[in-house]
Specification:
The radius of gyration is 18 Å and the shape is globular. α2 runs antiparallel to α3. It has 156 residues and is of the alpha+beta class. It has a single domain, classed as Nuclear Transport Factor 2, Chain: A, CATH 3.10.450. The chain is built from 4 helices and 7 strands. It comes from Luteimonas galliterrae.
Length: 156
């Protein structure tokens, strides 16, 4: 019975997705740089930089409570001023490493610019960004960002 239990345990571990528990410092540094460059490009409204950083098939669960499924739509929202900020600070906290994918989880503080939803308010958000390596390049493939409710903003 012990042999069957051990074999089942080994099989279940072997069937998990490839995931490195220990961080690759060089890769973490590269992805951190890309993640912060993405935040800076959004803050500056730099569509050319965002075009290079984001996968063509990017999907975003956006803080405006919508799922945006196309890079063009995201770039249009930036051009229309729906996504525009007077301040944008991103703090990556956790990096998860998979085959050809790195997931970044963290915290953001943004102040939407005049004319954007929630203009002038300081908003704290939690975010998850997934960077995937395609054709030798790391690109942002999907993102989830949500505003943290005011009573819930205290950090433990």
């Amino acid at each position: 019975m012990k042999t069957i239990t051990a074999a089942l345990a080994l099989l279940s571990v072997a069937s998990l997705p490839a995931f490195a528990q220990t961080a690759d410092a060089a890769l973490e540094g590269q992805i951190r740089q890309l993640d912060l460059a993405h935040a800076e490009a959004i803050f500056k409204g730099d569509a050319a930089a965002l075009d290079k950083l984001m996968d063509d098939d990017i999907t975003v669960n956006h803080p405006t409570n919508r799922i945006v499924k196309e890079k063009k739509e995201l770039l249009d929202l930036i051009g229309q001023g729906v996504i525009r900020y007077d301040a944008f600070e991103r703090r990556p906290e956790k990096f998860l490493f998979f085959d050809d994918m790195v997931v970044v989880m963290g915290d953001e503080t943004v102040v939407p610019a005049k004319g954007a939803p929630n203009e002038g308010k300081s908003l704290r958000r939690r975010y998850t960004n997934a960077w995937m390596k395609r054709d030798g390049q790391w690109r942002l493939a999907f993102r989830h960002a949500n505003n943290v409710c005011t009573p819930c903003q205290a950090t433990p």
